[in-house]
Design a protein that fits this description.
With about 325 residues, the chain is α+β, with helices and mostly antiparallel strands. Among the domains are: about 70 residues, Homeodomain-like (Arc Repressor Mutant, subunit A, Orthogonal Bundle), CATH 1.10.10.60; about 150 residues, Alpha-Beta Barrel (Multidrug-efflux Transporter 1 Regulator Bmrr, Chain A), CATH 3.20.80. Helix 1 crosses helix 10. It is elongated and about 75 Å long. About 30% of the residues are buried.
């Protein structure tokens, strides 16, 4: 099902030639992320709490709307995972280079107690601080390992991305918290509303906004907006439902074919591989999905989902 607005005007695709003046865009993105990482490193070196997400986004010159997704895509880890990794790294360097106590080392890098310090070591390294201090060669190997972030996801095939203009349209939205069962229930409630109000023939699209990444947030806590588009005016009476404007601008559109579980990895590739070389800039609007097939009637292997990443107009300063 597709909304009336979803016959977008294609401007380009991933095969277009990149402007030579923008050839250093990938390095620019990397430098911006490195500025955020430097803030984290400085805080850990000084034994302070890590900067809040908004401060990291500001340092990297990204909107808080998209910073966490771009950061994860470019580095292969969340900012919280970076904090944990760099805190362990700094503590290993202190253990290797100074004859200070375990307690002093823990406090120097921001752990509140030696117990919390030892627990982080067991979880992140599989050994206690004392055990690592007694094995200098292993200590050096762990320092080298933790000094490198996991790295961004690699795609085995070129991404077929289109830059499209999508006209504004309205959706009926319902916020749910949880995994796929809760999302399915949410869409069921939306369809029930449409049936009750004799709107089923007006359905023109099925959409969703994933506010959280289930790889980083417990499934039970993931917020998700279930959405249906209607091709006629409507007004929800139930406070649980909202009328939400969508579209109205430029988007990078990338199609995913297969199980919904693959959407996060493909989004990472879109942000880490296509976006830096595209010369495009992100707009302060949520990323959203359009679901083109009914999962109850279509085999999982051929389910089609379009990912829409909001982009600024080229004329914007």
């Amino acid at each position: 099902m597709a909304a009336d607005s979803d016959t977008p005007r294609s401007e380009s695709d991933a095969t277009r030639r990149v402007d030579p003046q923008r050839a250093d865009t990938r390095d620019g993105y990397r430098r911006r992320i490195e500025r955020a990482v430097a803030l984290i490193e400085r805080a850990i070196a000084q034994g302070e709490d890590p900067p809040e997400l908004a401060r990291l986004a500001e340092a990297a010159a990204f909107s808080p709307f998209h910073f966490h997704r771009v950061y994860r895509a470019m580095t292969g880890e969340t900012s919280g995972q970076t904090v944990a990794r760099l805190r362990l790294l700094q503590s290993l360097r202190l253990l290797a280079g100074e004859a200070r106590s375990i307690t002093d080392t823990a406090l120097a890098v921001g752990y509140q107690t030696p117990q919390a310090f030892s627990r982080a070591f067991r979880q992140g390294i599989g050994a206690t601080p004392s055990e690592l201090r007694a094995e200098p060669e292993r200590l050096r190997r762990e320092i080298a390992r933790l000094a490198q972030p996991p790295g961004s996801a690699a795609s085995s095939a070129p991404l077929r991305v289109e830059v499209v203009e999508v006209d504004p349209f309205q959706v009926l939205a319902l916020r749910v918290t949880g995994g796929y069962p809760q999302q399915n229930h949410g869409y069921g409630r939306l369809f029930a509303w449409a049936a009750e109000h004799e709107r089923m023939e007006q359905l023109s699209g099925l959409y969703g906004v994933p506010w959280d990444d289930r790889r980083d947030v417990a499934m039970a806590d993931c917020a998700f907006d279930c959405m249906i588009a209607l091709n006629a005016p409507f007004e929800p009476e139930d406070e649980a439902f909202r009328r939400v404007p969508m579209g109205g601008g430029r988007y990078a559109r990338l199609r995913h074919v297969g199980p919904f579980d693959g959407l996060e990895a493909l989004t990472d590739a879109l942000l880490a591989q296509w976006l830096p070389d595209s010369g495009e800039r992100l707009r302060d609007a949520p990323l959203h999905h359009e679901y083109l097939d009914d999962p109850d009637e279509t085999p999982e292997a051929v389910l089609r989902t379009d990912i829409y990443l909001p982009l600024r107009d080229p004329s914007d300063a």
